[in-house]
Design a protein that fits this description.
By secondary structure, the protein is mostly helical. It is built from 7 helices and no strands. The longest helix has 67 residues, at 125-191. The chain starts with a helix and ends with a helix. 30% of the residues are buried.
């Protein structure tokens, strides 16, 4: 997906697009929504951006967990590639347990597969829900604020560039007026 397409989707569908985007994947659309929340032209509020992203991420991961809980073992058994990935997640779970559940959404390549595979593990629904909710909240706040901060930074840079362009324009205009005035004075003096 292109950035332009995601910007268009955010402009047209706002929080719903953010919810669906974070339900499916999320980092890019959340960063853009955080950025858009800084810009008044989009009409997004940062608090609602965070809430929509949190709800979308939580719902998506809970759905993947329940699909894994009910169909995961059969689906994993059908594919060698899936078995290898599932074994990798189970090894990480044995080593990092709660930390993995809290942080998987921050690591590229683990975001979509991990909650599905965790559904096949011996983790209670309640434990996964609580840790997943905490992780989703931290993730939503962090990425929304990064996007928002980038919007603020870009605005400050653009303001300075525009101010500098304005100052340069004034300098060029002043020089042009000085040159025209000097030429006029020289011509007046030559006529005398």
């Amino acid at each position: 997906m292109s950035i332009e397409f995601l910007k268009h989707v955010i402009e047209q569908y706002g929080y719903l697009a953010l919810f669906i985007g974070t339900f499916l994947e999320g980092e890019t659309i959340l960063l853009l929504a955080g950025f858009a929340a800084h810009s008044p032209q989009f009409g997004l509020d940062l608090r609602w951006v965070i809430l929509s992203a949190f709800a979308g991420s939580l719902a998506g991961d809970q759905t993947a967990f329940f699909v894994g809980r009910h169909y995961g073992r059969r689906l994993v058994a059908r594919s060698e590639k899936w078995r290898e990935r599932a074994e990798r997640v189970h090894r990480m779970l044995a080593k990092y347990h709660e930390v993995l559940i809290l942080s998987f959404r921050f690591f590229y390549g683990l975001r979509n597969l991990t909650p599905f595979v965790l559904g096949t593990a011996d983790i209670t629904v309640r434990k996964f829900f609580v840790l997943n909710a905490v992780g989703a909240l931290v993730w939503a706040v962090a990425f929304a604020l990064i996007g928002y901060a980038f919007g603020s930074l870009l605005e400050n840079v653009l303001t300075r560039v525009i101010d500098n362009v304005h100052n340069a324009e004034m300098l060029v205009l002043g020089l042009a007026v000085a040159v025209v005035a000097a030429v006029w004075v020289v011509k007046r003096l030559r006529r005398r």
